[in-house]
């Protein structure tokens, strides 16, 4: 009975972890992202909101399998430029977020520039938290900066001031 109970507990833990991970890329999904954002101190975070430019064209021209490979590779590269305590998430479709803890705006801009320098073009919005902001407000500011980057011609980093 004990072994069965432990097995059941491990299965439940596995299911809870899986519910917070993106099945394709292995990074956090929106649920996992939201849960972690709710517990962080907004004064210590810098958010990069990342959207793949013209991703629909990749799927339309090369197929969804190719598009999936691109998403997996983008997630892998985001993980490679993030630190061990940072959060990488696929928020849906071709949108990702990279949350740095304790990184200043210039370091975040440099990371955004590394991401933009890739062959798959992306637009990046960056926002830094403050002690008075809520985590969701920091994400919204990064999203607004992302929209500004897209409106300014795509494949660029825009910082929310």
Q: How would you sum up this structure, described in words?
A:
The chain has six helices and five strands; from the N terminus they run H-H-E-H-H-E-E-H-E-H-E. The chain has 161 residues and is of the alpha+beta class. It has a five-stranded mixed β-sheet, sandwiched between helices. The relative contact order is 0.18.
What are the main properties of this structure?
alpha+beta, 5-stranded mixed beta sheet, about 50% helix, globular
Briefly characterize the structure.
The chain contains 6 helices and 5 strands. The protein is an alpha+beta fold and 161 residues long.
Tell me the Rg in angstroms.
17 Å
Protein structure class: alpha+beta
Question: What is the typical, i.e. mean, pLDDT?
Answer: 87
Total number of strands? 5
Distance between the termini: 58 Å
Main pleated sheet:
5 strands, mixed
Tell me the number of helical segments per DSSP (H or I, 4 or more residues long): 6
Helix content: 40-55%
Low-pLDDT stretches: none
Layout of helices and strands, plus pairs?
Layout: H1 2-18, H2 30-39, E1 45-52, H3 55-62, H4 64-80, E2 87-92, E3 95-101, H5 105-116, E4 122-128, H6 135-151, E5 157-159
């Amino acid at each position: 009975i004990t072994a069965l109970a432990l097995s059941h507990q491990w299965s439940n833990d596995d299911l809870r972890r899986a519910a917070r991970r993106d099945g394709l890329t292995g990074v956090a999904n929106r649920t996992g992202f939201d849960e972690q954002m709710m517990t962080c101190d907004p004064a210590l975070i810098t958010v990069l909101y990342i959207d793949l430019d013209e991703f629909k064209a990749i799927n339309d021209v090369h197929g969804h399998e190719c598009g999936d490979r691109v998403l997996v590779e983008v997630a892998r590269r985001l993980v490679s430029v993030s630190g061990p305590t940072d959060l990488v998430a696929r928020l849906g479709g071709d949108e990702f977020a990279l949350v740095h803890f304790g990184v200043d705006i210039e370091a975040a801009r440099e990371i955004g520039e590394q991401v933009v320098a890739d062959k798959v073009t992306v637009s990046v919005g960056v926002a830094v938290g403050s002690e008075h902001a809520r985590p969701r407000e920091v994400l919204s500011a990064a999203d607004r900066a992302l929209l500004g980057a897209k409106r300014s011609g795509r494949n660029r980093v825009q910082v929310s001031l």
